[in-house]
Design goal:
Chain lengths: 693, 211
């Protein structure tokens, strides 16, 4: 540790820290525009000037390394005057259009101008004006406001891995641009809006909609992918206006994917806001009472094993638990949360988790991607892989991939092959990547749903597991065999045991007429055309998507922003979301609907409040016993288990992996209802589906 | 404000010809393979000169920058940044001859205004940055060319014409128009920056002084 004296207060900081970090450690706030904790240091805004003893002039603290015994002064007359001068220069070409600027109220420049700005301008000449750039459907630009801090350039280059923004030209003519007028191709482009300290980059879909101080802010969890990104839902007057990420270094750092951020207009369209019942082929809206009674009548006399439920990708654990309890009380074990037909090793929790945790990626030193395309399946996780790739330096983090990348991965990937036969080659040492994994201290294998949704998934998983054991990826200290999920509800459902019982039907056989009454809990991505006409379909969900059209009875539920819910992310981290707004019309929280129906049916579920339900969930699986709302992660244990011989699990099939996500912007009912996402899909095009062929 | 970098009409493709390839091989041999991005400036210059050779207009189109980015394994954006930063790289088409008049203080004191005026008269160009109607000349204002002892300077493409005045400027342009390139260097009777008319000091040999 290095001892630095900040304004007379001694603080100890690690060697190599910057003066700015030392000041932060001492509790001094240093104004800054270009410096960002998660980006490289540029040192071009000069706002963070401080005085250092025996330095001839003020120094930019963000790029000034600390030395032992260094004395830093953050609030002297010299510092104040220097910062005022910097602010005057920054404001010379900045338009004073705060009243019509979307950043107003949460603008770093505005805030700092209160501290260091002058009341009058000495600049009498014409201000510089810069033409706005078209960066695609998500990011709006007002380039005249740009102060050229280059945070956006560094973000797109370093974090997103899509170096499409740059500072071109020089001096007064310098501009941030893509140069060739193209839309940003990153799935993380929304974060540019957050990193921009001024109003140069703002959200295009919500331009001129609201002011930052008008929002009611609610902590929540993103459900667009299985990462469980921590978000804050910002609502005004019962309407979700904006979603921004929260900082959680163990999950999403401070990034959020574009789908999670910009799908919000989908929450207002195609919503189910009242119960519907189909009578003689014609659907008509009814009251809750009539709907539940009609449903109870249909249930009457149907044996339990002729009733089944399939859960979708966006469900909270509470509703999953309620529907499972209801069906079990009716004597049914026809439950399935795998609407994509995936296979998991459910013998232990570790069989379906991202065992190393998201932050474990930072420790990995070799990576094998098996049938996964993280850039589309979890863009923020992909950024974490890229961060590790960049930090490790040239060749420090070799990444092999089995499957065909359907887009640029944003890091160097060695494509080892496109089918599972490559796994056999690695296992036998025929493939050179075997050596890479063998030499790595913390090798990591990520198995995706391109592999797990195949018929030979057990064999692929068994091969991966054998490989993991062989290369030391599963030890008491390091658990490197990971499953990357694509559905936010999946791990929670698996933790609750939302799977077919010993004699229960799985999703496919339920769809093919294995049950008389099929309850779809937000399950829209199943093959609905397979359902025979005589099957009675109950749809409990929030969007009038494909399944609602087939349904015989529609119960309107709440979307993820409209209910308090528990979600378990791909790494097994149990996280809670709070209700930001109320569901539209007569729609209700899903578990309450199920609870109400159980009473009508005469099988009343043993809980009346959310707390009771959650206590019950904790009995079903202790992972749900969270104390005080803290986010706990209970890792599974694979350490002691022996690797099963791959022969038991069937044979590997030679067919190549196919990407599970064809179009990143259209993967669930909310994003399919969103006009913003539809436009993104149009602009960025569908990922070439033929890539696998 | 003019956006100087706005791409003009761009060709559809760009391929380095054999002469350029030979130069590139020489340039790349100076850098280790993993640091080959350092060759971006020489390569931009090679591309610009090839365009001058082939099309008569020495500039770097976007496709050429893309080709360079691919060749050097760097993001295209990084090449755009470099090319747009340096004024010596032309990111839009220019005339056959690039008249670069230095107007920094020493040249200005020695009459660079006359040179500019002569250029304007001889080519019909009104302002800096314009190309003459016949497409032969582009006149730009440049900062100090580092040849102040021979001020004022008119740089035509890669050659310095030194000790200029209005009359000599007109002559040089007339020669260029006729398709000939005058010998670069001082336009008056002197060797590089030695005094006009020959040496003025150390006229006698050192042995003669001693006697």
């Amino acid at each position: 540790m290095v001892r630095v004296i900040v304004d007379g207060t001694p603080v100890d900081v690690p060697p190599g820290s910057s003066a700015l970090q030392a000041c932060e450690a001492a509790g001094k706030e240093i104004p800054r525009f270009c410096y960002h904790e998660r980006l490289s240091v540029a040192g071009n805004c000069r706002m963070c000037l401080v005085e250092v003893a025996r330095a001839p002039k003020p120094v930019a603290s963000c790029g000034f390394p600390v030395a032992d015994g260094m004395q830093i002064f953050t609030d002297t007359e010299v510092v104040r005057r220097a910062r005022r001068a910097v602010m005057e220069f920054l404001l010379i070409n900045h338009p004073l259009d705060c009243p019509i600027c979307d950043q107003g109220g949460e603008c770093d420049l505005q805030d700092q101008a209160y501290g260091y700005g002058s009341g009058v301008s000495r600049y009498k000449e014409d201000k510089r004006a810069v033409t706005d750039k078209d960066l695609g459907p998500l990011v709006k630009t007002v380039m005249t406001r740009c102060i050229q801090c280059t945070r956006c350039v560094r973000f797109s280059t370093e974090v997103a891995g899509t170096p499409e923004l740059g500072l071109v030209s020089r001096g007064e003519n310098a501009e941030i641009t893509t140069y060739v007028e193209k839309a940003l191709t990153s799935e993380l482009s929304g974060n540019l809006i957050d990193v921009c300290p001024v109003g140069a980059l703002t959200a295009k879909p919500s331009a001129f909609h609201a002011r930052s101080w008008e929002y009611k802010k609610t902590d929540s969890i993103d459900v667009m992918d299985a990462l469980g990104t921590n978000i804050q839902v910002q609502a005004r007057g019962g309407e979700v206006m904006r979603i921004v990420p929260r900082v959680n270094d163990d999950v999403n750092e401070e990034w959020l994917s574009d789908k999670g951020r910009f799908s919000i207009d989908g929450l207002k369209r195609k919503r189910l806001d009242r119960p519907w019942v189909r009578v003689h082929g014609k659907i008509s809206s009814v009251s809750w009472k009539d709907a539940l009674i009609a449903l109870a009548r249909r249930f009457d006399g149907v044996p339990g094993d002729r009733i089944g439920a399939i859960a979708g990708d966006l469900c909270d654990a509470e509703s999953l638990c309620a529907i499972k309890d209801l069906l079990q009380s009716l004597g049914s074990s026809n439950l399935d949360c795998r609407q994509d037909g995936a296979w998991y090793d459910t013998s232990a929790r570790a069989g379906y988790l991202f065992n190393s945790d998201i932050s474990g990626i930072d420790q990995a030193d070799a990576l094998l991607l098996v049938g996964t395309m993280p850039r589309h399946e979890a863009p923020v996780l992909n950024a974490r892989i890229r961060k590790r790739f960049v930090d490790a330096g040239r060749g420090g983090f070799p990444i092999g991939m089995i499957g065909t990348p359907s887009a640029d991965m944003t890091y160097d990937v060695t494509v080892l092959g496109n089918g599972p036969d490559v796994l056999a080659d690695i296992l036998s040492g025929k493939n050179a990547f075997a050596e890479v994994l063998q030499n790595a201290k913390n090798p990591m294998i990520i198995v995706g749903h391109s592999a797990l949704t195949r018929r030979d998934a057990p064999a692929i998983y068994a091969a991966c597991r054998e490989l993991a054991h062989a290369c030391g990826a599963v030890t008491p200290e390091w658990q490197g065999l990971n499953i990357l999920h694509t559905a936010a509800s999946r791990v929670g459902a698996l933790d609750l045991g939302f799977l077919p019982g010993p004699h229960g039907c799985d999703a496919a056989s339920m769809l093919r007429g294995g049950v008389e009454i099929l309850w779809l809990l937000g399950a829209d991505d199943v093959q609905l055309d397979r359902i025979p006409p005589e099957t009675f379909v109950v749809y409990l969900g929030h969007h009038g998507d494909a399944a609602a059209q087939r349904a015989d009875i529609i119960l309107p539920g709440a979307a993820y922003t409209e209910k308090p819910g528990t979600y378990v992310n791909t790494a097994g981290r149990v996280q809670r979301a709070f209700r930001a707004v109320f569901a539209p019309g007569e729609a209700r929280e899903d578990w309450r609907i199920i609870r109400a129906f159980s009473e009508v049916l005469g099988h009343t579920l043993p809980y009346d409040t959310l707390e009771q339900l959650r206590a019950h969930m904790a009995q079903v699986n202790p992972v749900f016993a969270m104390n005080g709302g803290s986010v706990q992660r209970l890792a599974g244990t694979t350490g002691g288990q022996a690797a099963p011989a791959s022969g038991q699990a069937g044979e590997l099939m030679p067919a190549p992996f196919r990407p599970v996500i064809q179009d990143y912007y259209q993967t669930n009912v909310i994003s399919r209802a969103s006009q913003t996402m539809a436009e993104c899909s149009k602009v960025y095009g569908v990922a070439p589906a033929v890539a696998a062929e | 404000m003019s956006t100087a970098w706005t791409p003009a009409e761009q060709p559809d493709s760009f391929v380095f010809d054999s002469a350029s390839e030979a130069e590139i091989a020489g340039v790349l041999s100076k850098y280790p393979e993993e640091r080959k991005a350092s060759a971006v400036m020489p390569l931009l210059y090679i591309a610009q000169r090839q365009m001058g050779r082939v099309t008569g207009s020495a500039w770097v189109p976007v496709v050429a920058m893309d080709v360079i980015a691919q060749r050097l394994g760097m993001a295209a954006m990084r090449v755009y940044e470099v090319a747009s930063f340096y004024t010596m790289f032309n990111t839009r088409p220019i005339g056959r001859y690039h008249l670069q008049v230095c107007t920094t203080t020493p040249c200005w004191l020695r009459g660079s205004d006359d040179v500019v005026e002569a250029c304007q008269k001889a080519t019909g160009i009104q302002h800096f940055g314009e190309t003459s109607a016949d497409g032969l000349f582009t006149m730009t204002e440049v900062e100090c060319l580092g040849a102040c002892a021979n001020a004022p300077i008119l740089q035509v493409d890669d050659d310095f014409y030194e000790d200029m005045n209005a009359e000599r400027t007109a002559q040089v342009i007339a020669e260029l128009r006729a398709g000939r390139r005058p010998t670069p260097g001082p336009m008056i009777d002197r060797n590089v920056s030695a005094p006009e008319g020959g040496r003025k000091t150390l006229l006698s040999s050192s042995t003669a002084d001693q006697e």
